[in-house]
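Reopening this ticket.

The earlier resolution said the output was attached, but the attachment link was broken on my side. Pasting everything inline this time so it's all in one place.
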Amino acid sequence: MGSNKRSNRAPTKGAGVIAIIPARGGSKRIPRKNIKSFMGKPIIEYSIDVAFDAKCFDTVMVSTDDCVTANVAKKAGAEVPFMRSKKNSSDKATIASAVIEVIREYKKRGEEFEYLCVILATAPMLSASIIKRAFKLLQQKSFDTVVPIVEFDYPVQRRLQVIDGLVSMVEKENENKRSQDLPPFYHDAGMFVWAKTDALLKNGTFFVKKMGAVVLPGAIVQDIDDEDDWKIAEAKFQAIKKAKNRIP
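Inline output:
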């Protein structure tokens, strides 16, 4: 992995498995979000650390277009063997497109991977045990991808809409139904995604027909899009640490 503090740390299992951490340098709402200090260290370091702690990757790499981010990633132990192309560095580029670029570049260099895991750079509450649980599910159930999901805080069947200032229920048939009588719905937890490399290359997306999921508690999930989200994430992180609970 080059000259970094984990250059001699070999994985214990999982031949042909790569962790890819996408980390563009640009961020409009939170400047340099991927390397901003979160509870004392660059937030991307949590993602790099959890990848190594999982002990199921042959390669842990960061895909970035930014030299400062690359240096932070290398210092934390990740590989940055090449920089991301201009095409996949805009805010309109998809994660799938950037990851496919990574896989193809490694192939040019004679390295191929059967499985890949994309770990977002802003997932400080993600644990190695969750990563391993999702990987086991991917292998045992013959899924093409596995994502973490979390239940919506409130039944989406009772959602409201505002038209010309007037509020109304979208699904009026649920007006008098109790929340506990409605089936749960989930959304992507936005922390990572496992995939069979061939499936990603074939479909060009992680959202495929054979997609499985691990359900996570809301206490460890926080989308970080703005400064308020950042503060909430730090509060959740501190609460977990204070309670001395291990993230499941």
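Reporter confirms the inline version is readable. The chain has one domain: 17-150+187-242. The domain at 17-150+187-242 is CATH 3.90.550.10 (Spore Coat Polysaccharide Biosynthesis Protein SpsA; Chain A).
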